[in-house]
Amino acid sequence: MSLGIPQDFKRYFSVRGSSVIGEDESGHQPIHLRALLIGAFFSFFLSVAANYADIIIRGSYLSLHFSTTGAILLLLVLVGGLNVLFKLTAGRLLLAVALFVLAALAYVAHYAPFDGMLAYSPGVLFSSFMVGALALNAILVAMSKTLALNRSELIVVYVMLMVVSSLATSLCEALLPAISGMFYYADPTNDWART
What we know:
The protein is an all-alpha fold. The chain has seven helices and no strands. The termini are far apart.
């Protein structure tokens, strides 16, 4: 019995790159920390926004158990909006700073007295992230870098969002209340606290 990868699989994997069989590393796009950070914020935003839309607003579902509507929406915002801005400003410091200043002025004009601003409102979270991301991008452009994501990094962000789509509703809205519900509804007549 010979050990190893069969020839049919080797032919298939040879066009897939070095992640499987160790060949052709030049064509690969690495995954950087920026993808994980952007994915972490988008995941946090989706978990807050999905529960906010379901429980507080009682509006459309951004994620319902394993439905990934919110993940697809955020991926479209990232690919069609933010990533395009990051790629346009790559190597153009003046444009990067101008976009940041424009976004910061719009942010201040919208939330001006800052008294009634709800820190965990999805609108505040997302607009704060946009201003912060444009500021960080302007700093990175000054250092000849960019926040633009490649295809591999976009896939990582989307997978992170798909996982959070199921956790935000299935875990937070169904499982955790079911676990804690016994203690909440416990009283001396049903004696649930002791059993």
